């Protein structure tokens, strides 16, 4: 059973990278094989899927559709074009903007909010949006590790170590993950400047768009605030973030129907939900859940513990870079949830402060997803947006930006975390 799971898993990810147009079909087919072969019992299929992520994507996509129809992204695009001298600065500014938002909102939601602005800018400038959306996605994924509410992996770490919101800023009297991530963001932004150094096409200020309805913008702001507030409330449902996004979408649809009397807006919002991306993520959750269920992740973790022995630096190095490698191909939520107790066991054997190992895990697992287009939900969401717009994103398109961006960010976090907490 384990060998069959490994073979299907490897084949799945090879096909996902090789056939970007058919990723949803591949993931769902592999998930079906896992169920048929009994690797994942059919009764556990629904619980294996992370419905919080699914609901959050669906709700935010609907909200973003209302946001686009309100003309607000077009206005923001006009403002950014007005403030930036060329395409390079416009792309980097958008990635920084996305990063700031992503520190306080789930990175998938951030991509879904900022991508329409990038699409509008690129359309007005007559350039391809592929590089812009990829830059936004990787920047969002990077900042997800900065705060308690930035990413599910941070929420998992906080629950395991009983950390509150402010522990991400100062932890045990030392600067926390937030500041470590910011240094990494600065270094990786320099990489973006280098990658886009030839994009010097001038941008011209245009007449500013008139916003037709500010209510969708208020709903998105409310979403940010509610997601932050929810992080402080104990014993909330696991799907609380997704429920917030879906509830706000419902409010927006009701308002469109009752106040605006505009059924077209409702149809557009429902149609703009990317059901293909939702199927892709659902399939991947089942596949990775199956791999975890048969013990493959634990086997690999046990192996590198035996290799490293009681050398803390070697253990830390293996955890960080192994996490980068694994998270490049499997969803980091399931991986992190699996590895947290493993890290606890390693720490108890080695003795001393385990913070360096826990932070190393989060840095590697969260940032590692930027190595490939399927390594993080934010990347999948960004590529899904481009696909709906008729653009094909190849693995080469993504890795041209994702690989150097990730290596610099992880290396920076790797060094700083060891200096501060070892």
Automatic annotation (TrEMBL):
<feature type="transmembrane region" description="Helical">
    <location>
        <begin position="357"/>
        <end position="386"/>
    </location>
</feature>
<keyword id="KW-1003">Cell membrane</keyword>
<feature type="transmembrane region" description="Helical">
    <location>
        <begin position="88"/>
        <end position="121"/>
    </location>
</feature>
<feature type="transmembrane region" description="Helical">
    <location>
        <begin position="240"/>
        <end position="258"/>
    </location>
</feature>
<dbReference type="Pfam" id="PF03600">
    <property type="entry name" value="CitMHS"/>
</dbReference>
<keyword id="KW-1133">Transmembrane helix</keyword>
<keyword id="KW-0813">Transport</keyword>
<feature type="transmembrane region" description="Helical">
    <location>
        <begin position="49"/>
        <end position="68"/>
    </location>
</feature>
<keyword id="KW-0812">Transmembrane</keyword>
<feature type="transmembrane region" description="Helical">
    <location>
        <begin position="26"/>
        <end position="42"/>
    </location>
</feature>
<feature type="transmembrane region" description="Helical">
    <location>
        <begin position="303"/>
        <end position="326"/>
    </location>
</feature>
<feature type="transmembrane region" description="Helical">
    <location>
        <begin position="133"/>
        <end position="157"/>
    </location>
</feature>
<feature type="transmembrane region" description="Helical">
    <location>
        <begin position="398"/>
        <end position="421"/>
    </location>
</feature>
<feature type="transmembrane region" description="Helical">
    <location>
        <begin position="217"/>
        <end position="234"/>
    </location>
</feature>
<dbReference type="InterPro" id="IPR051475">
    <property type="entry name" value="Diverse_Ion_Transporter"/>
</dbReference>
<feature type="transmembrane region" description="Helical">
    <location>
        <begin position="278"/>
        <end position="297"/>
    </location>
</feature>
<keyword id="KW-0472">Membrane</keyword>
<feature type="domain" description="Citrate transporter-like">
    <location>
        <begin position="13"/>
        <end position="354"/>
    </location>
</feature>
<dbReference type="GO" id="GO:0005886">
    <property type="term" value="C:plasma membrane"/>
</dbReference>
<dbReference type="InterPro" id="IPR000802">
    <property type="entry name" value="Arsenical_pump_ArsB"/>
</dbReference>
<feature type="transmembrane region" description="Helical">
    <location>
        <begin position="177"/>
        <end position="196"/>
    </location>
</feature>
<protein>
    <submittedName>
        <fullName>Arsenic transporter</fullName>
    </submittedName>
</protein>
<dbReference type="InterPro" id="IPR004680">
    <property type="entry name" value="Cit_transptr-like_dom"/>
</dbReference>
<comment type="similarity">
    <text>Belongs to the CitM (TC 2.A.11) transporter family.</text>
</comment>
<dbReference type="GO" id="GO:0015105">
    <property type="term" value="F:arsenite transmembrane transporter activity"/>
</dbReference>
